[in-house]
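Fold this sequence, please.
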Amino acid sequence: MNPTAHDPNDPRTIRVDEFLPHPPAAVWRALTDSDLMARWLMPNDFKLVIGHAFTFQGTPIPQAGFGGTGHGTVLDFTAEKMLRISWCAAPEDPSRLESTVTFTLQPEGTGTRLFLVHDGFDPDDPYQVMARRFMGGGWPGVAARIGEVIGEGSA
């Protein structure tokens, strides 16, 4: 099995490998511009600064212990190559999720190969098991959503 492929049997990690027919600079902009990110992910106050704490505003998913506000911190980045953020539940959320999401971009022909690794789910926590199930269905396809934003001419 390709180590970057989504393995539904890995209870701690989601892995996605998708191709975008856009250059890395355009994909990077869509990943790191708060307004563009809001269009393919969720409204947020993201800033590309290591240590910047930000929030995502989404729809509550009670079954996954998600109250609608996610918390993150920019952990690391290399421009147009890699972005690593924390992805955590709000303190009042029952899931107590503390995870990381790493986006890695590799040029491929005239496009970009996007690898995503969302790591840190606790397979013994029923809320996190459900959160992984929801996100495991949502992260695949992220390239298509980013591609739509880029295709709108804004990235």
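Residues 1-6 have pLDDT under 50 and may be disordered. The first strand starts at residue 13 and ends at 20.
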